[in-house]
């Protein structure tokens, strides 16, 4: 780890002001991913700005407009919050399927959005990596790529986004609030994370100097039917091979509305708009769910070692939709 200066921010305005004093500064809150990266020199900031004491731990109802969650609310606080458990059980279950209880107790919602891929080549500085050092190469393409992407990859990077929570937020059409010296803005969740393209070193569309201050969950009347299904190598403290966030609104056995997003398959949470469009208006039955799964996986491009993800994702989608059509619950 390289030495760095440590300062505490007293407000969001103070945090963005301190960031301007040194371009090679980074915010730190829970630090559950950043400290790992500092230890192996993936990040070498001159200054760390501690934002963990800012007044951004709220979880508040917005009349007729869902719930607003402060960026410093911990994963545990959000997953256990009565309104989240009741109105957005999909989000609660996704958070609880990630990491360990100890990590969830300190990891924050804002930090969860910014955690970086767990591609092993990225963390091993003996290897080249375009995400770590642009232009150096991507050894995963010809290497061990069992955990990597089947959608949206480029010839520069085939990594996947590691978050479970973000898959649920994608399905819920969340909105990210950010603040900088230029003012405040809101980013639709689907626009927040990006595909690698030619610049895999950039994971998000955050602009220089911006601090995440909150995440808004719009009201989704059928979110109570939400299901988060995660397939992984062991049943705790493991990243998803494939995950599915699904919610269905079924009226008289016909699908009125639907949300479907996949995790562990792309550089960002992968919303399946074509499958959603297919499902709307159809009968809620196993044949339709099977066809929707086929549509959702159209265009998948498996690599040498991860072809199993295609069938795994299809079966996971069918199971998640089936459980959601029955009213939701644990997958
Ligand atoms: Fe680096 Fe991305 Fe290639 Fe992994 S997949 S080695 S993160 S460029």
From TrEMBL:
- Extract the signal peptide range: none
- Record flagged with keyword Transmembrane helix: no
Entry-linked PANTHER family:
OXIDOREDUCTASE, XANTHINE DEHYDROGENASE SUBUNIT C-RELATED
The residues covered by the FAD-binding PCMH-type domain are: 1-222
Q: Which Gene3D superfamilies match?
A: 3.30.465.10, CO dehydrogenase flavoprotein, C-terminal domain, Uridine Diphospho-n-acetylenolpyruvylglucosamine Reductase, domain 2
Going by the entry's taxonomy, the superkingdom of the source organism is recorded as Bacteria
Which molecular-function annotation in GO is an example for this chain? Answer: FAD binding
Q: What is this protein called?
A: Xanthine dehydrogenase family protein subunit M
Task: Tell me which SMART domains the record gives.
Answer: CO_deh_flav_C
Keyword Ion transport in annotation = no
What keywords is this UniProt entry annotated with?
Oxidoreductase
